[in-house]
Q: What sequence folds into this?
């Protein structure tokens, strides 16, 4: 994310604004804002103007460990959990060990018994991990933005301050955001290609 942020800021001169909003329509910050992409994740359930009752959190806990002897990705699926070993390239031997897949659980605390379970399960599927005891650098719990019925990528035409605007919803990937995010972004942009084409044409004419 930091790489994308720096590239957009430095290469494409994108201006980033951080602001709290109480309603999705507040994201239309000026009369010139034609499109808003709603990528609010778990907040899509409660944010006014969206309030998608199909959204729910899926809790996961993972461990960050130092284990430079581990080089292979390994994964096994189970009920309410997923066991995986994922080395982080360029991290000087850091590895992610997981995890859990607890639907509807919004607890962000970490628990020692889950840490022990993760270590036991990951050692069971990774012979590399069993060669030496990994150094635990930290335990983290997070909430995946899941959605009953799958992702929501669609355009909604709304009226804000008397003007027709486009609101593009793009959320609900759950635990597959890394894999699906790029394709979802492309689909979201396609939803408003007619508006973006007009913006590009206007920009070209302004330079003539």
A:
């Amino acid at each position: 994310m930091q790489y994308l942020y720096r590239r957009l800021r430095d290469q494409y001169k994108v201006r980033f604004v951080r602001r709290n909003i109480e309603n999705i329509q507040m994201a239309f910050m000026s009369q010139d804002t034609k499109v808003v992409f709603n990528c609010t994740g778990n907040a899509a359930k409660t944010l006014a103007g969206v309030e998608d009752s199909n959204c729910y959190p899926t809790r996961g806990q993972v461990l960050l460990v130092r284990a430079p002897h581990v080089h292979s990705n390994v994964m096994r699926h189970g009920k309410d959990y997923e066991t995986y070993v994922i080395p982080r390239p360029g991290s000087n031997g850091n590895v992610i060990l997981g995890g859990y897949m607890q639907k509807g659980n919004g607890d962000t605390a970490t628990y020692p018994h889950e840490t022990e379970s993760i270590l036991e399960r990951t050692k069971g599927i990774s012979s590399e991990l069993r060669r030496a005891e990994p150094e635990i650098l930290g335990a983290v719990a997070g909430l995946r933005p899941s959605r009953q019925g799958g992702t929501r990528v669609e355009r909604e035409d709304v009226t804000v301050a008397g003007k027709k605007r486009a609101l593009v919803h793009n959320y609900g990937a759950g635990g597959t955001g890394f894999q699906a995010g790029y394709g979802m972004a492309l689909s979201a942009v396609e939803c408003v290609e007619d508006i973006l084409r007009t913006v590009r044409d206007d920009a070209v004419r302004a330079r003539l």
